[in-house]
Amino acid sequence: MQFNPKTQALFTDSGELIKVLHCPLRKQWDQMVPQPDSADRICASCEKTVLNTSEMTDGEVLSVVRSDPSTCLAVNLRAPNVTIVVQSSPARGWRQRVLSFHRQRFLRVCRER
Fold it and tell me: Could you tell me which residues come within 8 angstroms of residue 57 by beta carbon, excluding any fewer than 6 positions away?
């Protein structure tokens, strides 16, 4: 799986969006109640099960989220099945190209004078 910490988006290794993670309660993993027969935990605030994706495949996570889009997921950034990705925003790249163009144009105008 690929995770973008800036956008909180979780993708399969092939780039398919699984889910954008968002929890308004902002609970930490160690604040949740462990389940005896599972690696998952229960959030004591909302009482939902939070799936531990550390040992799940992309396909398993995608299947669970497709069947229930409101599924809560925990992504361990140190897990071997997670790659952290950071993608620059297209808008930022566009601005940088425009600024670069204007700087070059300005330098050219200054040199001609």
Answer: 81
CA distances from 24 to 16, 52, 71 (A): 24, 18, 14
Q: In the chain, what is the straight-line distance between the N-terminal and C-terminal CA atoms, in Å?
A: 55
Residue 83 near residue 67, CB atoms below 8 Å: no
pLDDT means per 10 residues, the chain with 113 residues, are 93 95 90 92 93 95 96 93 77 47 44 44
Question: In angstroms, rounded to a whole number, what is the distance separating the alpha carbons of residues 40 and 32?
Answer: 9
104: which residues sit within 8 A by CB, 6+ positions away?
none
Q: What does each C-alpha distance from 31 to 28, 34, 35, 43, 45 come to in angstroms? A: 5, 9, 13, 8, 10
Question: 81-93 in b/e burial notation, b at 16+ Cβ within 10 A?
Answer: ebeeeeeeeeeee
In terms of pTM, does the model score above 0.70?
A: yes
Structure token pair of residue 72: 């809560």
What whole-number distance in Å separates Cα of residue 42 and Cα of residue 2?
24
